Every structure is written in C-alpha cells, then in structure tokens.
Amino acid sequence: MSTLVDADGNPVKFDKEGYLRHINQWNPSVASHIAEAEGLTLTEDHWEIIFLLRGFYTEFDLSPAMRPLVKYVSNKLGPDKGRSIYLMQLFPQSPAKLASKIAGLPKPSNCL
Amino acid sequence: MVLNIINKSPFSHSAFSECLAVLGDNDRVLLIEDGVYAAQADTEYAKTITALAGNNQFYILQADAQARGIADRINHDVQAVDYTQFVELTTVCNVVHSWY
Amino acid sequence: MRHAPYGRSLAREGLDALMASAVFDQDLSLLFINDGVFQLKESQNTESIRQKNLEKMLAALSLYGVNDILVDQQALEQRQLSVEDLSLPVITLSATEIADLFQQQHVIFQF
Which residues constitute the domain of residue A51? Predict the structure, then answer.
C-alpha cells in the first residue's frame, strides 16, 4: 500500500492499524486497496454500506459503533439490511471497525 | 492601554467579573474560547459590557462565537474580530493581560 | 454534563463515555446543567477552530438508544436560551426534579 497516491499525487498515509490518517485522501481505489489487504473483494452490497458510512460521518462527525450503525442502516436501507448478521456477512468479525477502515473513517472510538 | 484576554465562561468562572473590576480607562477586553458567552445579547454580562462600552472597547473572536452557535446574537457593543485582527490588537496595546 | 463545549475537552470525553455505555445497553439518563446547556445550542460551526462538531455528534444519540435528553430549565433561563434555541428536543426539569433524579441513580458520571 506504500505506493498508493491520492488525487493530488501525494502518498496516501495510514496509521499503525491501517486506518487512513486523512479522510480527504479517500477514494474508491483507496477503499479497494484497504479491502484487499483485509482479504475482501468489494461487491455492490459492500459499496452501499461504505457510502452510507461516509454519509454517517458527514452527518454526525463520528465513526459509529455497531449498534448505531445497524440502526442507521435500518433507517436508510430498510430492516432487511439493518441487521447485525447482514453486516457480519459483508464485513466479517467486526463490521463497524472493518467497514469504517475501508470507508476511510477514523477507528470508532466507542467501539469496544 | 491594557488588552485583557478572557477565555472562561462568566457563568461558571469569576475571571470576567474580576477583570471588569480592575479595568482602567480605555482598556480593551477580548473574549475568546468560552469567554465569548459573556457577549451573548441580553445576559447580565452583556448588560455590564454595554454599561462600560463608553470607556472601554470590547471584542470577540468570531471563530469561537461561530463554533458555539452564538455569532448571530452578540451584543452590539462588542466588535467581532478574526485571527489577524486579534494579532493586531496585541500589537497596538502595550500590555496584554490573559485571564485564566 | 456541566461544561461548555470546546473550551475544554470534557464535553467531548463525556459524550464518548456516554456512547460507550449506551453500546452496553445501560439504562441511561443524560442531564445538562450549568454551562453544559451550551452544548445543545443550535447552529454550531467549528470549521474555523478545527474541532469536531459536538452538535452533529449529539444528533447521533438517538441511534445509540439515548432518547431522553434532560435539561435544567433554570440554567437555560440564566443564559437567555429557550428550548427553541436547542438542536434537539429536550425535557426541561426544575431544581427539585433534578435533585430527585440524582437520588434515583445507581451510578452518576459528571463531565
């Protein structure tokens, strides 16, 4: 990932855990790179959640923990997708952390 | 001429009242950070400012008022300044007194 | 919450602690007293001070299951604020009601 550059040609910077240092360096190809490093191939269903998460961050200045993420997805995309199991299938183990990472958001601070 | 800088809310800290008690003629007061709440129109502190405005000039750092959502309700006797004007104020006053 | 936003980091830290507790399904009451009521003032714009916007963060509370936001009516009045000046719907309490509320809690965190 060290060769990745942003729209201005500057190298994209990550922290020790692989989260983006600057949210404005994010773009879909950065997302694909992060996902690949996590062993994920992104589908339309992934992108839907990724863009939704970026919307959450713009609206609330916050990376959500699991519970509010599920509720937000349910409000925006309906109850079928607003379930932990759906998000777990897309982003295994810790959906809030993994999806935030791919969406270029800071690590959720209240996600224990 | 002293520039007094206050960064604490007058509702929970005595810095504002203590400062006004020792204000000399022509001294200036700049409200920054939580100090900006003193300039919110119609509060008891804003009334004190109006009473003193003939002798003293009062300023507020616009960025801090905007952050706190009170930029549109500042007492008319208080002048909004940006960061550049903040620096200018510290240069035209011979003494800067910060209240914490 | 009894401190104004931004001047110190307490408001932000309190909100983080609250959200962390909410994730564990705790039965929570959130009360704003003293200068804490300024956290609820609408129209906050923090771009020029480069801090997180607390008004936006508070808007996420309902997604965290925190629905009742309690406010000291007297603290609002002293600061020339009315409920219409606030960014979220709140329940206002009198001094006596606040005293009762403190008596009912098992644990109290103040920020």
Answer: 44-102
